[in-house]
Amino acid sequence: MRTIEHFIVNNPGGAAARTGDVFDPNTGRVQARVLLGTQADLDRAVAAAQAAQPAWAATNPQRRARVMFRFKELVESNMEALAHTLSSEHGKVIADAKGDIQRGLEVIEFACGIPHALKGEYTQGAGPGIDVYSMRQPLGIGAGITPFNFPAMIPMWMFGVAIACGNAFILKPSERDPSVPVRLAELMLEAGAPDGILQVVHGDKEMVDAILDHPAISAVSFVGSSDIAHYVYRRGVDAGKRVQAMGGAKNHGIVMPDADLDQVVADLSGAAFGSAGERCMALPVVVPVGEKTADALREKLLPAIQSLRVGISTDNDSHYGPVVNAAHKQRVENWIQTGIDEGAELVVDGRGFQLQGHEQGFFIGPSLFDRVTPNMQSYKEEIFGPVLQIVRAPDFETAVRLPSEHQYGNGVAIFTRNGHAAREFAARVNVGMVGINVPIPVPVAYHSFGGWKRSAFGDINQHGMEGIRFWTKTKTVTQRWPDGSVDLPRGSEDGGPSRIQDAFVIPTMG
Q: How far apart are CA 413 and CA 431, in angstroms?
């Protein structure tokens, strides 16, 4: 059986005392085993990163940008193979897998502009003969701990900006679908990054703790559940690191009475059920304002949900595929039962779904709840599966209050034709990312991504200029040059070029 090894300079294997199973979610069978690393494995990766990083930091930004351009080309030329590998381990359909990769590449495109993004500030004449300027310098070694649901996008969100800024990077991807992150590291090396600049270590909590405690790692970026995000943030900060830890979500979609319900239903079909709901920016709660709106929305939702096609990840006609493993399938089904026990109305039950010929696959049909209330635990917590909940709101004020008072504050959307209502909602809602008639408001790569409340721990968001700030430290220089003549050499006795002439030769920057 295939073994997925670490991607560490000169020694990928390690002791291999422990391994984890990597499943094919379509069949339920184990398709590979991944090494679960130790402190010793991390130490080897850190040593290689320390050896490589100073020269990489000294490489001018244009040359680092050229590596990013080449990496982008290589990922694009390998898109088909990467998408199939991703789907085979995660379960998302090929179209979603390609979207996963493409959204990561958009951050790589942003990182290609690193010469401009790293420009500092300058003030001439801040005082008598005094100038002040700032520069952004890399931190040294950064690390990323990434989740199973976006095995291409989120690693590229992290390492693309970190490496472009001049850091070395150690990636600890999810052990559930680790093959694509390793392949991305191989492509980065092929693109021209030095050995040791991007490495991959596999593991579970033992490796996570080793990363958080290692004194040579300066910053850690994390995406996962909120409880673990909080743990990562506290332990990393206690160890003196810069930490950004993105957690869970329970994103709401507010539907005003004037909304285009046909468009809302089309948007919800993808936002709530796409990728089997395994997205922190999914839209699992819809809040129609007024009973008339709620009844009309429910009526339109039913046929749309019933027409969703659940299939294997390579079926181009499937809207979504299986969830990642058996444990996660059971977790989602348990939440459905909890909703029933709490008194919510289960309108569509996705439990017990089986796909002919793939009966052991980790499939769940779409589920719809109505008359969910804010006091229900199934509303308070993240289900992370193909489950949509309707929470009816009597008025606009309630619709603003529901997402604002929820423990999570990642994303929210409002559907309306009323510009004033949309503007008021966007200004008042206590959530980090807002969509106006946009169901999944993930910002473009040159803006930043980050939620509020228990959806994010730390002060700096991911990618965009926030990412540049996270992966660099600012140095500010205040300078004054004294007045007085300087005796400059005029030229050599043999008629060769003088030293002052040499000083005006423009060096090659490329």
A: 10
pTM for the predicted model, two decimal places:
0.92
pLDDT confidence of residue 263: 97
Which of 104-113, 363-372, 449-458, 478-487 bottoms out in mean pLDDT, i.e. has the lowest?
478-487
Residue ranges of alpha helices (H) inside 366-498 are 377-380, 396-405, 419-428, 464-470
346-365 pLDDT per residue, tens: 999 999 999 999 999 999 99
Mean pLDDT of 210-235: 98
Per annotation, catalytic residue among 280, 312, 332, 387:
280
In the chain the domains, ranked by start, together with CATH numbers, are 2-247+456-472 (3.40.605.10), 252-450 (3.40.309.10)
- Please say if 280 is a catalytic residue: yes
Which tens digits make up the pLDDT trace of 300-348? 999 999 999 999 999 999 999 999 999 999 999 999 999 999 999 999 9
Phi, psi of 294 (to 5 degrees): -65, -45
Question: What's the gap between Cα 1 and its chain centre?
Answer: 30
The runs of H, that is alpha helices, within 389-487 are 396-405, 419-428, 464-470
pLDDT tens-digit map of 367-384: 999 999 999 999 999 999
Q: Are 181 and 153 in contact (CB under 8 A)?
A: no
Q: How would DSSP label each residue in 142-206?
A: EEEE--SS-TTHHHHHHHHHHHHTT-EEEEE--TTS-HHHHHHHHHHHHHTPPTTSEEE---SHH
Nearest to 60 by CA among 508, 478, 445: 508
Q: To 5 degrees, how large is the angle CA 341–CA 344–CA 350? A: 85
How much is the pLDDT for 22? 97
DSSP state of 386: S
CB of 433 closer than 8 Å to CB of 280: no
H helix intervals, 429-498: 464-470
Q: How far is CA 462 from the centre of its chain?
A: 8
User: Are 353 and 273 within 8 A, CB to CB?
Assistant: no
Write out 34-62 in H/E/C secondary structure.
EECCCHHHHHHHHHHHHHHHHHHHHCCHH
Taking the C-alpha atoms of residue 66 and residue 58, their distance in angstroms, rounded to an integer, is 15
